[in-house]
Amino acid sequence: MALNKPEPKGYTFFGPEPKFADVPYAEWKARMDRTKKLMRENNVDLLVIMKEENCRYFTGFTSIHFRPPSIQPLVALIPVDGNEILIVPDFFRGTAEGQCWIRDIRGQENPHQIKSEREHPREVAAVIREMGYGKANIALEKGWLGHMWIPRPLNDIQTLMSELPDANFVDGDKVIWGCRMIKSPLEIERMKYSLSVVREAHGVVVDEFVPGMTEREVGRIVMHVFVEKGDWSIGGHIACGREKEGMIDTAHHFDGVTINTGDYLWLDLCVNCNGYWADNARIFQVGHVPDRVKKGYDVMYRAFDAAVEVMKPGVRCKDVWAALAKVEKDAGIEPFEMCGHGLGMDIHEPPSLGIWDETILEPGMTLNVEPAALGGFRRMGGDGGFHVEDLVVITETGCYVIYGFSRDIISV
């Protein structure tokens, strides 16, 4: 098997420019410029990209075929000097041309055959040698930062590396996250829209909920909004009713859980629009809210505000955690080891607002701040869970908050 040669003009279907580009040329070019700057700073000669979110960020390519494990929809080769190359199954040439500003596109023949799948890494290695990077520092999607991983079988990764015995394979995490952690205005606008969809879903639940509904029915309300307004969604953490207390990060697919007066709706919802996630949490009490429960909300809100107060360029993530944790500790609540995380094309991105994270905040970072606590299980006489989560954008001089649903509404 072999790769098709690149088209002489660089295109067959859509002309010299992509008709359905994910981002404008200026946005993509700025990403490439930053990528190559970071490659030079980290002594990386060639960056190899295969993961879905990275493929979209660095090339604009999207495909539902990242979910089946049989074929690799895209491999992007980004050299520190020279032109980028895309390797796709031959039937995705039109997809790449329609979405990507890169015009050197190589098509893999017979991509569904097992022999082709196993030969694919050898073909990628051959292109790398053709580019003149067979003895270079080649960065793969690996490294400790942000849990980088290569979405291919181990034997394929080993084959790629063995086919380039003179190359030095290095971690690509610092280059990849060095780009992706800093969001552009376009990316922030997409995140704002995603958050508006979650905000609407919370509002519809508040409007339509009545005691006696099941958790599945609440989940359907949420998913209806997501399907209508979003591109891709997961249920998020939907845990309603005292029967579910203690089960964290489940979805709404459990039957038989009925939500009654005195219970609460814990809705930590996630939706993706235009490639960017929203992740936003609220807890709504069912019926009357006792004063002691109102005090729990007050602690969460003050903890959130204390974190936002210190968030600005130059501050360490662990110092944000400390500001939030102090409010909770003063109220007699033991804080979790993490009170927030980066957000973007992935639901959890670096940096983390954790007790361990030394990362320095920079303008353009987008982080969810989410104080949470468990005041004892409601079914055992406790106050239940408390959780609020909103998005914070770091600016040149400080930060601003993109709020989800109103803080003032805490009951249904």
What is the first-to-last residue Cα distance? 62 Å
The fraction of residues in strands falls at: 15-25%
Q: Specify the overall morphology.
A: elongated
Low-confidence stretches: none
Radius of gyration: 24 Å
Q: Reading side by side through the largest sheet, how are the strands ordered?
A: 4-3-2-1-5-6
SSE series: HEHEEHEHEHEHHHEEEHHEEEEEEE
Largest sheet: 6 strands, mixed
The total of beta strands comes to 16
Characterization of this structure:
The strands form four sheets. A six-stranded mixed β-sheet has the order 4-3-2-1-5-6, with helices on both faces. The protein has a five-stranded antiparallel β-sheet with strand order 11-10-12-15-16, sandwiched between helices. β15 (390-394) and β16 (399-402) form a beta hairpin. The N and C termini lie far apart (62 Å). It has helices at 25-41, 52-59, 93-99, 114-130, 154-162, 173-180, 185-208, 215-229, 291-310, 317-330; strands at 46-49, 75-79, 85-89, 105-108, 137-140, 168-171, 232-240, 264-273, 276-285, 338-342, 349-354, 366-369, 372-374, 385-387, 390-394, 399-402. The model has no long low-confidence stretch (mean pLDDT 92). With 412 residues, the protein is α+β, with helices and mostly antiparallel strands.
